[in-house]
Design goal:
The chain is of the alpha/beta class. Helices cover 36% and strands 23% of the residues. It binds 5-amino-5-deoxy-1-O-phosphono-D-mannitol (M6R).
């Protein structure tokens, strides 16, 4: 969490840093700050609680033609969001400035030691401790900034991506990373530093992604040298050519990124299977799977680890994998898995799912699984992300940048990738009949058209949203493949509208939650024709007899559920196993409209951040 941007070169730094912060605001947005160093040797800092727009307002008086600058958008960990705790932080001498994404876990003992040595602190942050530690080390041994950063980081426990600037050496910025992402954009006589490449995409398509435990002194007119923080060894910089374009990271006429991303789903699902799915030939080809086919086929079980929406995609995959391949599957919250001494062996295949590829808990779960000898396969969206590098093999979802904090297209593309993997394995194992296998391939190929059709429910979803926008609670019910969709629907609603919502397997109602039903309680039931339709109809009857308000997601032409429901949203028919790709669409739209009607900040909901790089 937190977004960091730095610039050193020949252009004015202010607009680059501010625009960059706006693009990184999805990472954290409770406070923001900027530092500029101008040719007269003035170091100016402006910081504020609130969004980058508030910072822009506040920093008018510091704008200069400075060509060196750093900025930060924060998701608070240590210290409440306020002006003082915002970054950049200065060292006691006022010479060093730092921006930091991550957590310094041992900041308390370090702080005590520094206080004993005469240092004082104005903020409650771990970051202010780090910048003073660097200053202390630098002064004590009369070190250059790069060396001082290295020595200090070797005393630190935790996670970081940092930029450090020294007013006594104003032609360089020292950067380092451990556990939090950091990219360096390499231009002509200029460098850009950022948490991801979006802040510099219009200036250069050459990027270096620092690996964990690496640091660099980014110096003007000098080749970039990357070193290992621990042993000082030099690393060859690998310059990657970026494929991202500006259009992909802008709103393209939509009011919110979330809506844009919901509407992108037909296209991005196609991008996900393009070149991999050849329905007429009965072929599914994914390099990461082909190269490791034996590992999957010989697996005693598949263990899926993920968080949040990605975990829900994992739950859908559990149903799909077991049905198609007959390989036992378990799905775990990465945050629980990592701390419970799980039983894993080299006969397990661990599948880690993550949109950002940076989620700290998922990353830790992967490391643990690897230590225990498992083969780990990643399903990530962000190319070159930490998880994609940490796993043995993987498949990208190709959904393009997802900026809205609420995950939408990541979910459907993750399900698409996982379904393709399951189909490929079923072919190798012969666990699906030939006709079923071909049928699924063909259905998957036309899913984008059905998603497009499901998007036509937008206006109707908005009308329903108008009726339920003031609800305080909401229940989501589904069965089988659509039970995880119920969980995902509830998560979408709570995270962006702040309405309390729960997802349940419909049949579990009678074991407790049915007590909640009264005429105030909207119940969203996912009831497509395929699957456990009759059972779900009985569950709907149970709700109706207790006066609950029923909003049902049904297959086009349905009459039975329509009669029982207060509102229905009709979606096109597909097979049970692929239905989550369709049923989820109206639920995304419903949450979106409810949140908009309640005046919530849909793309940046309170207390959240897009990529959760702290545990
Ligand atoms: O980047 P990841 O997929 O690893 O993120 C996992 C969760 O933090 C994420 O899905 C979160 O739950 C979303 N905000 C849900 O919309």
């Amino acid at each position: 969490m937190c977004g960091i941007v730095g610039y050193i070169g020949h252009r004015e730094a202010y607009p680059i840093v501010i625009k960059g912060l706006k693009r990184l605001e999805y990472r954290g947005y409770d406070s923001a700050g900027i530092m500029l160093f101008d040719k007269e040797g003035d170091l100016k800092i402006s910081k504020t609680k609130g969004k980058v727009a508030d910072l822009e307002e506040k920093s008018k008086e510091i704008i200069s033609a400075a060509t060196i600058g750093m900025g930060h958008t924060r998701w608070a960990t240590h210290g409440v969001p306020n002006d003082v705790n915002s970054h950049p932080h200065l060292s006691n001498s006022g010479n060093l400035a730092i921006i930091h994404n991550g957590i310094i876990e041992n900041y308390e003992p370090l702080k005590k030691e520094l206080i004993k040595r005469g240092y004082t602190f104005t903020s409650d942050t771990d970051t202010e401790v780090l910048v003073n530690l660097i200053e202390d080390v630098k002064k004590k041994d009369n070190l250059k900034l790069g060396k001082a950063v290295q020595v200090a980081l070797n005393q630190v426990v935790g996670a970081y991506a940092i930029c450090v600037f020294d007013r006594e050496k104003p032609d360089e910025i020292v950067v380092a990373r451990l556990g939090s992402p950091l990219a360096i954009g390499v231009g002509k006589d200029e460098f850009f530093i950022a948490s991801d490449a979006s802040p510099f995409i219009e200036y250069t398509s050459n990027a270096i992604y620092l690996e964990d435990e690496e640091m660099a002194v980014v110096r003007l007119h000098k080749p970039l040298k990357i070193r290992k923080i621990k042993d000082d060894s030099l690393v060859d910089p690998y310059i990657q050519e970026l494929k991202m374009n500006l259009e992909q990271i802008e709103k393209g006429g939509y009011e919110h990124f979330m809506l844009k991303e919901i509407y992108e789903q037909p296209n991005v699902i196609k991008d996900t299977y393009r070149g991999r799915l050849h329905a007429n030939e009965g072929i599914i080809q994914m390099a990461g799977v082909e190269d490791n086919l034996e590992k999957f086929l010989n697996a005693d079980r598949i263990l899926i680890v993920a968080c949040g929406t990605s975990w829900h995609a994992g739950l859908v995959a559990e149903y799909v994998f077991e049905e198609f391949t007959r390989i036992p599957v378990e799905v775990e919250y990465a945050s629980e898995f990592r701390y419970r001494n799980p039983i894993i062996s080299s006969k397990d295949v661990v599948v880690a799912i993550s949109q950002s590829g940076e989620t700290a808990d998922t990353l830790a779960a992967i490391k643990l699984a690897k230590e225990k000898g498992a083969f780990v396969f990643g399903v990530c969206n962000v190319v070159g992300s930490s998880i994609s590098r940490e796993t043995h093999a993987g498949a990208y979802t190709h959904a393009g940048p997802e900026i809205g904090v609420a995950s939408t297209k990541a979910f459907t593309t993750q399900i698409t990738v996982l379904t393709m993997i399951a189909l490929r394995l079923s072919k190798a194992k012969g666990t699906l009949s030939n006709s079923d296998y071909f049928r699924y391939l063909q259905e998957l190929e036309i899913i984008p058209e059905k998603v497009q059709e499901a998007l036509m429910t937008n206006e109707h979803a908005k009308e329903i949203a108008e009726k339920f926008k003031n609800s305080t609670n909401c229940l989501y019910l589904g069965r089988g493949y659509n039970f995880p969709v119920a969980l995902e629907g509830a998560l979408k609603l709570k995270e962006i509208s702040y309405i309390h919502a729960e997802g349940y397997p419909a049949a579990e109602m009678k074991h407790g939650p049915i007590a909640l039903i009264d005429e105030q309680m909207p119940v969203i039931v996912i009831a497509p024709k395929q699957g456990h339709y009759d059972k779900v109809v009985s569950n709907i009857q149970e709700i109706k007899s207790r006066s609950g308000k029923i909003i049902a997601i049904v297959t086009k032409g349905d009459t039975q559920v329509k009669e029982l429901s207060d509102h229905i949203i009709e979606i096109p028919e597909t097979s049970d196993a692929l239905s989550p790709l369709i049923t989820t669409i109206p639920l995304q739209l419903l949450s979106y409209h409810i949140a908009v009607l309640r005046g919530c900040n849909v793309d940046q909901p309170r207390n959240l951040a897009k990529s959760v790089t702290v545990e």
